[in-house]
Give the backbone structure.
Amino acid sequence: MSDPGESERRWRQDLRAGVARPADLERLPLDAADRSVATLYKVRVPASQLERIDWSDPDDPIRRQLLPSAEELTVLPGELEDPIGDEAHSPVPRVTHRYPDRALLYPTYVCSAYCRHCFRKQTLNDQGTGFSMAALEPALDYFARTPALREVILTGGDPLTLSDDQLRSLRERLEAIPHLRMIRVHSRIPVTLPTRVTPGLVAALSGRLMTAVVTHFNHPREIGPEAVEACRLLRTAGFMLLNQTVLLAGVNDEVETMKTLCQELVYALGAKPYYLHHCDLTRGVSHFRTSIDAGLELVRALRGHVSGLCQPTYVLDLPGGAGKVPLGPGFVRGREGHDWQFSTYDGETVDYREVLRPDPDES
């Protein structure tokens, strides 16, 4: 059995040996213009992720996601600091309540790595950093007096940067609210700091409430032995394991890359591809944003070539807090009454006639 103390020392050392301040970037082969971005937006990269980067490739997908780029300084008209309207649906501090039966809770604004495409990159700059139960009391009170809630989604920041004791305390407080049924944890930790996933962390999240962990793998290169082991621990604890990916130009917008990612999520990690997010209208991330047409073509190309278990739902988070809408390639070619025409995954047109019982109201 592994030593819990040794497990904690390992991941904490990974963080300490990585990049956490603008000055730390001086030891990396980055342009001065790229390094300057770290004075505007947070930077943190664990040492293990720096080791995974192919420094001979300026478009390395891990480098592109985690290290600052001068491209972030380009802000286009229409880009937003709060692109999905988190603040528009915030009834109390650290809560976003957009849908009737579920709400977001921000227990921390700290991450193990700060992604350059993050839609909350400005929020992470503006908000306080760490965890305190006192700061969460208004949120917990709100959840207790909102009986329609069934699910609390821990986000941030990254909730798995909390200590095991902090996670346990928070889980116990949520379990004391009788109408809650599930905790959902959104985390990049299995990607960027997989050694943080330990038996102690799993125990801290285990209790009365159903637990789902939604990971954020964006490229097959992020799936290594330690990520596989982290997801195995989560699965064998009985947690539901899902993944959401952001469609990122220059990272995963090629069909073969996305196909491999979706297959490896299922076959190597046991994580169901859940959402493929169209890149939000975040300020300074236009270099990551594809067109919607390109996204539709990509998901159409996946159809029929990967298992249904490997198919994510392509979604767009609308500005202003209007919520997600699915973006699906059109497979309906036409219809006349009960006669339909469909396009198959390989482009063939197939006729289909509905066979229905007569409607007595139409007789």
About this structure: The radius of gyration is 22 Å. The longest helix spans residues 255-269. The chain has a mean pLDDT of 93. The longest strand covers residues 240-247.
